TrEMBL record, chain A:
<feature type="transmembrane region" description="Helical">
    <location>
        <begin position="105"/>
        <end position="122"/>
    </location>
</feature>
<feature type="transmembrane region" description="Helical">
    <location>
        <begin position="207"/>
        <end position="227"/>
    </location>
</feature>
<keyword id="KW-1133">Transmembrane helix</keyword>
<comment type="similarity">
    <text>Belongs to the binding-protein-dependent transport system permease family.</text>
</comment>
<keyword id="KW-0472">Membrane</keyword>
<feature type="domain" description="ABC transmembrane type-1">
    <location>
        <begin position="68"/>
        <end position="280"/>
    </location>
</feature>
<dbReference type="GO" id="GO:0005886">
    <property type="term" value="C:plasma membrane"/>
</dbReference>
From TrEMBL, chain B:
<protein>
    <submittedName>
        <fullName>Raffinose/stachyose/melibiose transport system substrate-binding protein</fullName>
    </submittedName>
</protein>
<dbReference type="InterPro" id="IPR006059">
    <property type="entry name" value="SBP"/>
</dbReference>
<dbReference type="Pfam" id="PF01547">
    <property type="entry name" value="SBP_bac_1"/>
</dbReference>
<feature type="signal peptide">
    <location>
        <begin position="1"/>
        <end position="21"/>
    </location>
</feature>
<dbReference type="InterPro" id="IPR050490">
    <property type="entry name" value="Bact_solute-bd_prot1"/>
</dbReference>
<keyword id="KW-0732">Signal</keyword>
From TrEMBL, chain C:
<keyword id="KW-0812">Transmembrane</keyword>
<feature type="transmembrane region" description="Helical">
    <location>
        <begin position="237"/>
        <end position="258"/>
    </location>
</feature>
<feature type="domain" description="ABC transmembrane type-1">
    <location>
        <begin position="67"/>
        <end position="258"/>
    </location>
</feature>
<dbReference type="InterPro" id="IPR035906">
    <property type="entry name" value="MetI-like_sf"/>
</dbReference>
<feature type="transmembrane region" description="Helical">
    <location>
        <begin position="7"/>
        <end position="29"/>
    </location>
</feature>
<keyword id="KW-1003">Cell membrane</keyword>
<feature type="transmembrane region" description="Helical">
    <location>
        <begin position="66"/>
        <end position="90"/>
    </location>
</feature>
Length: 292, 432, 273
């Protein structure tokens, strides 16, 4: 048994394609981006080696830390919203009537591209013609907020579509995980007189714990490098109020022609994400599982 | 059996990826040198869907050029504005710019010129053909690197029907403009559409106020090219005026979260009475069949009013839009230059009559049958005494970013006029 | 008491369902409007004068080639990702070797790269191997960039497969390949179809890499159809809406199809289990 399951040739054969592709197309560019971070380079003229200066500047760059803080907030909210998705998946995966139809409907927004989602939410948040403020005015709210224009609100306003955009993704994963639990276990618990909530808390959730851990990592990592809707809906504004690390990096590298500094920010983003991931894995690790 | 099948399957997969990668070596880039025909790569940002007329004229010009020069063929790639800028950026890092492409003036092209990416066009340009000031914006140290295609000035466009309804007239002074704002607000009409998410829109308001207030049309330009400080009293006062206008509810609700496009649509849906924009928008108010005739007849424009008796209304904020560059390292530089100058030359007249774009080249408006608004704008252009190039185009990219962020903060009341001036000053001073 | 609970539950579920179905209705309405109606009108108002020519514009723009490219690039890249990711996840979770956690670590780093950091180095690499303006560059990139997330999703499921199944297979004299292709892959059918859906959506909607690596119209995908309507100063949003509707339809159809597959996969594995 063990001999077959540790056949080196097969391990190599099965792992090599993934490792090769990721090594060449992801790890090498990452190293290069860390290297560009050591340069004073506008992406056009010749590079000039300046050592760690970009990284030093970044560590003292208030705008960078502010955008990092925004990214952290997004990660926090994304991770918390997983609870909601898990509840939805638990309901959909239980044998209620119409679950099949509901599940399909719930996943629809996930199919839309970011372009469509951004346009939709721009319309939702429009201060004068938007859906949200129309509803608020209907209910007698005077001076409803300027969602994307108010620097105190813009960041949180933009979190909602981002979190909503990924709802389908996580519900789909949880659903598949829950359906993977052998039905016989649940039936046995029912016969023992356990309530649906008890079954969910004591059996289903522990059984899919590995999947939940993975989704926590996915949502946090995805949030820390998030870019799409922020860029389209507010461009990081007003005046940086909704800037996140990836949009700040993009602005520096592609709009301000400071490619060296932008690369340094991109590399720091990676380091931060890496540290956060390691912390999450340590926090969620249990004895019996393999340490990833 | 199964075992072998699986192994060979995986092996074939990996190998084929390599082989494909290696094989394709022979494809792609080589056709440029095949035969006697030379290929000039040309990238522009007027896609067929959104800019049908631009696109068609350029295609016509290309076929005309290929007919006259049977040994040259043009290889075209079209992208949208944002994607175009991003792609040019990526291409330039590998020194792979297209032979001919589009560039913006001043601050945008500076790094490309410094990095020796753009070829000098002094040998093909005849400056007399261009409206004065346009080629200068594409010059660095007396050498011209771009052939201007567009020229814009900006005006306040207004809805005549709304003005009539409330008995309003075109304002001559800022005070009159403020009275109009007050009247409209009393009647629950949004006075001015402004999409300040793309802060260059707010920057135009600021620039005009600075120009008029100071009575010195060079006040901002001097601050940018460091002959003067941005903390000049007039520049601070202009920022104060901006906040006065915001305080008087002159602009649409939530302007800092609106894109220019959304503001424009409000104006065009008659939900706002006024809208400051450059002349690239003229087709919407004259020839664009997608816009209702009734609305087009209802649009008028006036020059930015004077402030406190100061300012010259024949001074405009505007300037060149895109121009053509030729890549310095192009294998077919001569052909590329030939094509670029041919395109600019042919573009001029057809741009006005077919597209409604005011070209960088001089045109004879008298001989053309144009909508009234065009004639007026072209006449204004002839009597223009100054055109100040948009601040964010004048500045280098980094300072422009600071300026635009500061504009948003200024309009949003997050910073004082003094802080606004200081932020700009610090950015501009930083690079000396 | 139980009844009230159910009524409440269904009310909430139905409310959320309406909320989730709105975007599609909105998108269809959006695609039939002019810019003024889109920006200045009520988003859910019916278009006063439905602009069917928005769709005409899209077809005139020549979506045929783009559509076909989107289809085959999506299918090939998705297939490659799923296969390669499954194999790697299998060795990481089921086989015994020293470096499995290191390999997983490298794969996880792949999750963390912001694409704009990778764009310029990738362009340069493809340029050096002459893969610029070659669809292969897109396929390789899509395959690779979806590998980490696919492996992560599969990970949680592979760990739940009981060891006994493998032990029994080995006693029967089965090889690893046979076990992987004939037992493990079919067992993970439900989660595989989930990853197929996710991969398809990503590949179908991607535009940054296509726009950067591809310049010939012959190899561009549907997402550039959207670019076609973004102008220097004006954007034709109605036509963009029409493009979005046209491009989301195949995905919806494919999604509904794969949802059925999920159910089938579950029933199949339930029978076995």
């Amino acid at each position: 048994m063990n001999k077959i399951m540790s056949n080196k040739w097969i391990i190599f054969l099965y792992t090599f394609p993934a490792l090769f592709l990721i090594g060449v197309l992801i790890v090498v560019p990452l190293i290069l981006s860390g290297y560009f971070g050591l340069m004073d380079w506008d992406g056009i003229s010749a590079m000039e080696f300046i050592g760690l200066e970009n990284y030093m500047v970044a560590l003292q760059d208030a705008k960078f830390w502010e955008s990092a803080f925004h990214s952290f907030l997004l990660a926090l909210f994304s991770a918390l919203s997983l609870i909601l998705y898990l509840i939805v998946a638990l309901i959909l995966a239980s044998k209620i009537k119409g679950a099949n139809l509901l599940r399909k409907i719930y996943l629809i927004p996930m199919l839309l591209s970011s372009v469509a989602i951004a346009q939709l939410w721009i319309k939702v948040y429009n201060p004068t013609n938007g859906m949200l403020n129309s509803v608020l005015i209907f209910f007698g709210v005077e001076n409803p907020p300027n969602w994307l224009a108010d620097p105190d609100i813009a960041l949180y306003a933009i979190f909602i579509p981002i979190i909503w955009q990924y709802a389908g993704f996580y519900i789909l994963i949880y659903y598949a995980a829950l359906k993977n639990i052998p039905q016989s276990l649940i039936e046995a618990a029912k016969i023992d007189g356990a309530s649906p909530v008890q079954i969910a808390m004591k059996m289903k959730i522990p059984l899919i714990m590995n999947v939940i851990k993975v989704t926590i990592v996915l949502s946090v990592v995805g949030s820390l490098k998030y870019f799409d809707l922020i860029y389209v809906m507010t461009g990081g504004g007003p005046n940086g109020a909704s800037e996140v690390m990836a949009s700040y990096m993009y602005k520096l590298a592609f709009e301000s022609y400071d490619f060296g500094y932008g690369s340094a920010i991109g590399f720091l983003l990676l380091i931060i994400t890496l540290i956060v991931t390691i912390i999450i894995r340590k926090l969620t690790a249990t004895k019996e599982e393999i340490q990833y | 059996m199964k075992n072998k099948k699986a192994i060979s399957f995986v092996a074939v997969l990996v190998i084929s990826l390599f082989v494909l990668a290696a094989c394709s070596d022979t494809g792609g880039s080589e056709e440029a040198s095949s035969g006697d025909k030379k290929t000039v790569e040309f990238m522009h940002l007027w896609p067929e869907g959104s800019s049908a007329q631009h696109h068609k004229i350029v295609n016509d010009i290309i076929s005309g050029f290929e007919e006259e020069n049977p040994d040259i063929s043009i290889n075209l790639e079209v992208l949208s504005n944002e994607q175009y800028k991003d792609k040019i950026k990526v291409l330039s890092t590998s020194d792979k710019l297209p032979d001919v492409g589009m560039t913006w003036a001043a601050g945008y092209m500076e790094p490309y010129v410094e990095g020796d990416m753009y070829a000098s066009l002094d040998d093909v340009i005849n400056k007399d053909d261009f409206v004065s000031g346009t080629t200068e914006a594409f010059s660095v140290d007396g050498t011209t690197y771009g052939l201007p295609l567009e020229l814009n000035t900006s005006y306040i466009f207004y809805n005549k029907a709304i003005f009539e309804e409330y008995g309003l007239e075109e304002p001559q002074t800022l005070e009159e403009l403020k009275d109009i704002v007050a009247t409209l607000n009393e009647n629950d009409v949004t006075p001015i559409a402004l999409g300040n998410k793309d802060a260059w829109t707010g920057s135009m308001w600021y620039m005009y106020l600075a120009d008029r207030l100071s009575g010195n049309e060079d006040v901002l330009t001097n601050a940018i090219n460091r002959e003067n400080s941005f903390e000049d009293p007039a520049l601070v006062q202009a920022a104060e005026e901006v906040q006065n206008l915001v305080g008087a509810d002159a602009f649409v609700e939530g302007f800092n979260g609106l894109a220019d496009e959304e503001a424009k649509s409000m104006f065009m849906a008659e939900q706002a009475a006024m809208y400051l924009i450059a002349t690239w928008d003229l087709p919407n108010y004259t020839t664009n069949e997608d816009v209702s005739q009734e609305f087009r007849d209802n649009v008028g424009y006036f020059k930015f009013p004077t402030v406190g008796g100061n300012g010259n209304t024949n001074s405009y904020i505007g300037g060149t839009g895109v121009g053509l560059f030729v890549a310095e390292n192009s294998d077919v530089k001569e052909e590329a230059k030939k094509f670029a100058s041919y395109l600019v030359e042919q573009w001029g007249e057809r741009a006005v009559t077919d597209v409604g774009v005011i070209p960088g080249t001089k045109v004879d408006a008298e001989s053309m049958d144009l909508p009234e608004m065009y004639n007026n704008v072209l006449n204004d252009l002839n009597t223009a005494e100054n055109i100040t190039l948009y601040a964010d185009v004048q500045m280098n990219a980094e300072d422009a970013q600071v300026h635009l962020d500061a504009i948003q903060a200024l309009f949003g009341g997050e910073i004082t006029p003094e802080e606004f001036a200081k932020r700009n000053e610090d950015a501009l001073a930083g690079e000396e | 008491m139980r009844h009230i609970g159910y009524i409440l539950l269904y009310t909430v579920l139905a409310f959320v369902a309406v909320f989730q179905i709105f975007p599609i209705i909105w998108l269809v309405l959006f695609s039939l409007k002019s810019n003024q109606e889109i920006f200045a009108g009520n988003p859910f108002a019916l278009p006063t004068d439905p602009k069917w020519d928005n769709y005409l514009k899209v077809f005139e723009g020549g979506v045929g080639t783009y559509f076909w490219n989107s289809v085959w690039i999506t299918v090939v890249a998705t297939g490659l990702t799923i296969l390669i990711a499954s194999m790697a996840t299998y060795t990481i979770t089921r086989m015994h070797w020293k470096f499995s956690s290191l390999v997983l670590g490298i794969i996880m780093i792949g999750l963390m790269i912001p694409i704009h950091s990778a764009l310029i180095p990738l362009y340069n690499m493809f340029l050096n191997v002459h893969l610029i303006d070659n669809p292969l560059s897109i396929i390789i990139t899509y395959t690779t960039y979806n590998l980490p997330i696919t492996v992560m999703i599969l990970l949680g499921f592979y760990t739940t497969i009981p060891r006994e199944i493998e032990e029994a297979a080995i006693i029967d004299g089965s090889s690893i390949h046979r076990m992987f292709f004939q037992i493990i892959l079919p067992l993970s059918a439900p989660i595989l179809s989930t990853t197929v859906i996710i991969n398809m959506i990503y590949n179908w909607n991607e535009f940054v890499f296509v726009n950067t690596f591809i310049s010939s119209d012959a190899f561009k995908t549907l997402t550039v159809g959207i670019q076609n309507f973004i102008g220097q100063y004006m954007t034709d949003w109605g036509a963009i809406g029409a493009t979005l509707v046209i491009s989301v339809l195949p995905i919806i159809i494919a999604f509904l199809f794969f949802s059925e597959k999920i159910m089938e996969g579950i029933t199949a594995s339930a029978v076995k289990g």
